[in-house]
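Assemble and predict.
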Amino acid sequence: MNRTLSFSSRLLPVELVVLQGTSLCNLNCTYCDLSAASRRKNLSMAPELLERFFAELFRSSHLGAEVSVLWHSGEPLTLPPSYYEDAIARILRLKTASAKSLSVRFGIQTNGVLIDDEWCRFFSRHADVLEVGVSCDGPEDLHDAFRVNWSGRPTHRLAERGMELLARAGIKYKLIAVVTRLTLQNAERLFQFASEKRDQVSGFHFNILAEATSAVPQLAYSANDRDEFYAFYRRLLALSRRSQDGHSPFEVQNFTQTAARILAPENHRGPSHFEQSSAPLRSLNLDAKGNVTTFYAGLSVDTLNGLYGDGMGLSLGNILDTPLGDMFNSPKLQRMVEDFSRSRRACETACDYFSVCPGGFDLLKRRSLGSFDSTETVECRIHVKTLVDAVLDDMADHVKRTES
Amino acid sequence: MTEQSPVSAKLSQAAIAAKAGQLNDYAPAVAAAATASTPPMSWGSAMRR
């Protein structure tokens, strides 16, 4: 076996495919990662492109038992339900032809504004294989401060209407809320907003903004804000572990995932949490033009575009001119894997939180500190260390309470 | 013997408490136990850069 084959065979199977069905978005949220130009462009992924990608993926040896296919990175509902009817049918047909035993699940992450009865009928028809996620940042004032349309108008009322339509149709959805500085002072209101929807949501997760740097003061944060984030996490933890009005505690998935890492057996074998999060190929992104990237869900070709000298950032190539197999065996992927391994080794050596770190900060390290060999970023401090501290202290208080 | 960092000490204490069953009714731990040991990658947890 030659060196290239041996490299490729060490890669973990593909678990998540993020498809940019369209780059167009009906909203202009202040904190969006995608460029305004791409979000204004009415560019959709051609069915032939989708076919080529999945035909090659399903024939590859890099598959496990299940693959999730998620439409995001643009507002998926700006395309009609018929687009997804066709896409799901094509993907399932290709799966049956090449990977019969593989389980494929679908997801659509939407801002909820365009949900109507027709969409509800579509979601219901595919409920056995499709999960809907709605992005809503909590109560009106927290949401409307940043989630606005292209005229700058608020969108909370429309997102709420969409969620109500889903609820009326009996369709459960996952709620994802972005946390800004405004949210930090409003943990109770965020929790109340989400937990009041307990009967209609399949899960609730909050996202701290991916990057600390922003020209907008209410979106920027620094390591000095550690105490404010700690207090926010502790308040949410206190609220989420209590039973309310006869209901069982309302789960906040960030805390579940953190507790799972903390309580993972010490003799855990296999890749660390850190390694798994940035394992090459575990998540693949296909943009509307056919560019393929990997490492993190939703990664765009514009990210660190000069890093590997081809102006294509972490792109492995375009599916229209490069077979997936060539991408998976490419020298560029090997260089990236070496960089990410160096990044992991640096953290493993220097950081006391390594065993409980979900990983995912390699590119931020490279961008903000200039090297994959660097270690703590502001985002590590706020997203990981402060959150782990809060959960550990909450666990210790729980033990004290049960002892007394 | 090397001194443990504050977080290492707390992680050890959490492991001891879990082993003694003291976290059996701690809500995030209960939810975590109900999740498969290696859950499939989810959008919320994978979106990092």
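Chain A touches chain B through 62 residues (CB under 8 Å).
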